[in-house]
């Protein structure tokens, strides 16, 4: 049975697809978006969250580490990530939850049993399970086996994806997934490469592929001031979606800073500290662009305006 690397399971989620959902976060993503609110989902291997503010300086963790990666240079814990292999031995030694291992390998069987625990909530709300991340398509064997098991068990599935994956993986996943929440960030390839580290060609091609198959998709566009929020970018994305065989609905997701504190826990710098949250008026102005292309549009999951007939 396939195994996969996940970093979290969130129960009772209401923003990750229809109804009440259990969201499973896959660990590892080929993109490097600086606005990502799940930075612990970027690496494909386990890593350590360190919370110095919780450290009481007791020193119990120091002898637990086989690599001498921990020290108390200023009276609170410091981690040398070059030495640490995320074995997690220090976590059990800490009395104040200052150390945490993020990421674990699980089997399909174990994960489906975890999802099944929430079935009552799915059945009453039209919900199910959402596979998010990180990038779920980056662990294709694990994901496809999970989707098969969910289908056998009558669990509705949603895939939350960047769309950056080989076409055959997208094709295979489309055979099982009930709905895709599909990110489009930047229509200009140079800008896409600059901000995410990868070209947007495969993402656009895979969306065309899903549309040609009649797959259910909601396109999600993160509105990041100074990066994705130009009218030119929104117009280009709207034009692309309107030309698909299935003109999918669009959800504009306003930038927020939730998750920025997780960068410090990982020893990383959050680059968008100066980026403002876009005001509602700006979001509505951008939503109007999609209405002009006769596309259904939402702002943060809430329907905006009406598509003009004809
Ligand atoms: S996770 Fe393992 S290697 Fe890393 S600091 Fe803790 S005990 Fe040391
Ligand atoms: S065991 Fe926990 S509280 Fe004690 S020094 Fe280590 S990190 Fe700090």
Structure description:
The chain has 10 helices and 14 strands. The chain has about 300 residues and is of the alpha/beta class. The longest helix is centred in the middle third of the chain and has 13 residues, at about 140-150. It is globular, with a radius of gyration of 21 Å. The protein folds into 2 domains: about 5-45 and about 105-305, Alpha-Beta Barrel (TIM Barrel); about 45-100, Alpha-Beta Plaits, CATH 3.30.70. The N and C termini lie far apart (about 50 Å). Bound molecules: iron/sulfur cluster (2 copies). One iron/sulfur cluster (SF4) binds near residues 55, 57 and 77. The site of one iron/sulfur cluster (SF4) has 14 residues, from loops.
What are the bound molecules?
Answer: iron/sulfur cluster
Domains, number: 2
The number of helical runs is 10
Cross-sheet strand order for the largest sheet? 7-1-2-8-9-10-11-12-13-14
- Report the uncertain regions: none
**What is the H-and-E element order?**
EEEEEHEEHHEHEHEHHEHEHHEE
Specify the CATH architecture of the largest domain: Alpha-Beta Barrel
Going by helix content, strand content and strand pairing, the class is alpha/beta
Largest sheet: 10 strands, mixed
Mean pLDDT: 96
Classified by CATH, the class of the largest domain is: Alpha Beta
Straight-line distance between termini: 51 Å
């Amino acid at each position: 049975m396939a195994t996969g690397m996940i970093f979290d399971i969130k129960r009772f989620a209401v923003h990750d697809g229809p109804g009440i959902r259990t969201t499973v976060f896959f660990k590892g993503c080929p993109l490097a978006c600086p606005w990502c609110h799940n930075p612990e989902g970027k690496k494909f291997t386990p890593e350590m969250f360190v919370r110095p503010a919780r450290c009481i300086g007791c020193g119990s963790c120091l002898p637990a580490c086989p690599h001498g990666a921990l020290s108390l240079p200023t009276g609170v814990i410091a981690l040398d990530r070059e030495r640490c292999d995320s074995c997690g031995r220090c976590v059990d030694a800490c009395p104040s939850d200052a150390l945490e291992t993020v990421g674990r390998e699980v089997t399909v069987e174990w994960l489906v049993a975890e999802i099944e625990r929430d079935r009552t909530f799915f059945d009453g709300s039209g919900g199910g399970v959402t596979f998010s991340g990180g990038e779920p398509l980056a662990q294709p064997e694990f994901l496809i086996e999970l989707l098969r098991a969910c289908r056998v068990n009558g669990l509705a599935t949603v895939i939350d994806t960047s769309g950056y994956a080989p076409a055959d993986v997208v094709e295979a996943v489309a055979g099982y997934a009930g709905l895709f929440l599909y990110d489009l960030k930047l229509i200009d390839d140079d800008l896409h490469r600059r901000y995410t580290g990868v070209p947007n060609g495969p993402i656009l091609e895979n969306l065309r592929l899903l549309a040609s198959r009649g797959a259910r998709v909601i396109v999600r566009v993160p509105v990041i001031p100074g990066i994705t929020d130009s009218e030119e970018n929104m117009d280009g994305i709207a034009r692309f979606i309107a030309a698909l065989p299935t003109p999918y609905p669009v959800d504009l997701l306003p930038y927020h800073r939730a998750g920025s504190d997780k960068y410090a826990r990982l020893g990383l710098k959050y680059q968008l500290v100066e980026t403002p949250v876009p005001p509602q008026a700006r979001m509505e102005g951008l939503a109007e662009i999609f209405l002009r292309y006769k596309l259904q549009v939402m702002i943060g999951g809430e329907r905006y305006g009406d598509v003009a007939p004809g």
